[in-house]
Design a protein that fits this description.
Radius of gyration: 21 Å
Order of helices and strands: HHHHEHHHHHHHHEEEE
Strand content: under 5%
Number of strands: 5
């Protein structure tokens, strides 16, 4: 997908054709059934992938593709709890190979260091091939982040604010709209039910939410309709759902801060999964999921296919 990034990050004569290709490709995404035995761990695993992405400074599109791969693989396999970290990291690796420039792709050894060298390097290679076969070797899969990065080019213009604005005022409002759109983009990873929504439609809702918060004269005007291909009637319900999610998360965060002891110090989300070694070396990321410490009966016993598969 990285090959498209240079084109959709700026307006070119090929932009419309690329968007058409991406909207056609999104129809090939797998439909989630929400039947994975590991669903109770999804929130933890998504946060784990986010933390790895921040630590390795990966693109948003990489994180969203890795989460999609994780959701699809978990939905079709029974995965041993002690293999969840391995699956998540391998999804990040494959997503990075698609979305990142080659120097930014983390090495297997570096990823393994993030979980204290928990797995043999050979396990990553075996799982990488297993994932590629599962997706039929096709990982050019557009995500919500793919479309949002394009829609941001058109998120607001001077006409959206009615009266004349100085260059500085317009820049401020446009920057704020972009920040909000990316905030709503992050929220789309929270609710697993959104995995079955077309990414182009979900990204349009992110833009609509951002525009409603700036605010502009009309949340969804003809320009937005033409740009995304979606009328307001199709975007409205998703927009309201994302706005409700944001309000709920803000309320939850506020309540959490009120309950925090005054002497507890600063605690970030990243701190929950980042630990510094006693010798002062780089920290490691790890997720504990009540894993069984017994030896696996071979690699494939850990990832079986469902009718569903157990991995």
């Amino acid at each position: 997908m990285e090959r498209y990034s240079n084109y959709i990050s700026t307006q070119t004569e090929y932009s419309e054709d690329i968007i058409y290709i991406l909207q056609d490709a999104e129809l090939c995404r797998l439909t989630m059934r929400y039947t994975s035995p590991q669903l109770r761990y999804r929130e933890v695993m998504v946060n784990f992938i986010r933390s790895v992405g921040e630590y390795e400074q990966l693109r948003r599109t990489t994180i969203h593709l890795a989460v999609y791969m994780l959701d699809a693989f978990m939905d079709n396999h029974n995965i041993s709890d002690n293999r969840l970290n391995l699956v998540a990291l391998t999804c990040v690796l494959l997503a990075a190979k698609i979305e990142e420039n080659e120097p930014s792709v983390p090495s297997l050894s570096k990823l393994n260091e993030l979980v204290q060298n928990q797995y043999p390097i050979a396990d990553f290679t075996v799982l990488e091939v297993l994932l590629l076969k599962f997706f039929n070797w096709n990982l050019i899969i557009p995500t919500t982040a793919t479309f949002v990065e394009f829609w941001l080019l058109y998120i607001v213009d001077s006409a959206d604010f009615g009266g004349p604005l100085s260059e500085f005022q317009f820049h401020q409002r446009r920057t704020r709209a972009i920040e909000l759109a990316l905030e709503f983009l992050d929220i789309t990873l929270t609710d697993i039910k959104m995995t079955n929504v077309r990414p182009s439609l979900l990204s349009a809702a992110c833009v609509a939410c951002a525009r409603s918060c700036v605010p502009v004269l009309t949340v969804w005007n003809e320009t937005m309709h033409e740009m995304t291909g979606f009328p307001w009637e199709e975007v409205e319900s998703l927009t309201r759902e994302l706005m409700d999610w944001r309000a709920m998360l803000i309320t939850k965060e506020t309540a959490s801060r009120k309950r925090r002891p005054l002497d507890s110090g600063f605690m970030s989300d990243f701190d929950e999964s980042f630990e510094e070694d006693e010798d002062g070396s780089d920290g490691v990321l790890s997720i504990d999921c009540d894993s069984d410490d017994s030896d696996d009966d071979g690699e494939m016993a850990s990832y079986s296919k469902v009718k569903r598969t157990k991995y």
